Amino acid sequence: MNLTPLRQSFVLHFGEMGSRWGINRTVGQIYALLFVSEKPLNAEEIADALAFSRSNVSMGLKELDSWKLVRLQHLPGDRREYFSAPEDVWAIFRTLADERRKREIDPTLSMLRDAILVSPDNPQDAFAQARMRAMHELIETVTDWFSDVQKLDEQTLRKLMKLGAAAQKVLEFTGKLGLGGSNERNG
Amino acid sequence: MNLTPLRQSFVLHFGEMGSRWGINRTVGQIYALLFVSEKPLNAEEIADALAFSRSNVSMGLKELDSWKLVRLQHLPGDRREYFSAPEDVWAIFRTLADERRKREIDPTLSMLRDAILVSPDNPQDAFAQARMRAMHELIETVTDWFSDVQKLDEQTLRKLMKLGAAAQKVLEFTGKLGLGGSNERNG
DNA sequence: CTATAATTTCAGTAATTACTGAAATACAGA
DNA sequence: TCTGTATTTCAGTAATTACTGAAATTATAG
């Protein structure tokens, strides 16, 4: 298979970008290719289109699978495995956010939780704990909120986001209306 | 300087985590050290505490500076440069989000914008463009909304987040009240 | 069960990124 | 200005990560 210039440039961009996102070029390109492909592709087609070795593609797909970013399927009368990127971009966004939280946030939250518990036996540790407590509270607030927001269906989420700057006004209303009053705990 | 076990483990964790965040160990550790240090530190103190070469620290600080994550200051009667991490964790969060957007999102948005503009001369490109359009719209919606939210002061932001799952209820209200009505465009 | 095709694993190698020490540069005080 | 100290740069090297081809494994059709 040879890619059209348009798809080529999309694929290459994702490969380059990959490094900034902590994934490697191969993985980025494979995902990009699947994303713009109408039909699912098998590993050999991918290897061919991107000029990677078959084994490299295998590892890349495994990585993408661990991120839950590809769907595996079979075509009738063909025993090869075919891969595609889910169509719903909002679902993709959720998946990505979820996985990143698990890998990049949760371990830190857990470390902070532990570090905050022990009683400090010197002024430096007391100070450090105060800082960690602030960081922990921030991360927890943001991630809890994010996971709440994530539960909303696409339509609602979209509305919420389009609302944007008007959020402040909304808050003034909710204050008056007593909505969300149970959330008033504060550090 | 030698670190207490508590601060040691915090610093080491940030070092390890760094790789998942696309920053290197050195940079992660330097930042962590500054974050839990009550007083600003000069480069030599950092190099000493973390057992890195002086030049490595210099590069690490340069990197942190490019992320706007450290403050540089001078102590009276001392010509060395002292570094500290800003105290306000919400401000740090904003800075980080801002920089990541600039580096990791904006280039992709711009690539997508260009790719969408050209008229496709084959069915594959037409399909690819449809996908790209969906991705572009999602990213734009999310980042626009995020930059709106970011403008809110900490107090309001905190309230908004604590609100969490109640957001849906709020939207029902705003629907009735006609707030945010101008945002009703939909793809 | 056997033959064959598909996929994965993995050891070796290539490429990239991180780190150091030495040299160069910048900068404050005399 | 000069002199000593602080900082940065950069070429070389170490460490890590990415990639390949061959071999092993898994799966399927007959």
Largest sheet composition of chain A:
3 strands, antiparallel
**Which chains share the greatest interface?**
A-B, 70 and 70 residues
Report the span from N to C terminus of chain A. Answer: 58 Å
Low-confidence stretches of chain A are 179-187
Give the oligomeric state of the chains in this entry, treating copies of one chain as homo and distinct chains as hetero. Answer: homodimer
Overall pLDDT confidence of chain A: 89
Secondary structural class of chain A: mainly alpha
Q: How many helices of chain A does DSSP assign?
A: 8
> What proportion strand of chain A?
under 5%
Please provide the ordered H/E string of secondary-structure elements of chain A.
HHEHHEEHHHH
Largest sheet of chain A, order of strands side by side? 1-3-2
What is the overall shape of chain A?
A: extended
Q: What's a quick, concise take on this entry?
A:
The structure is a homodimer of 187-residue chains. Chain A is mostly helical.
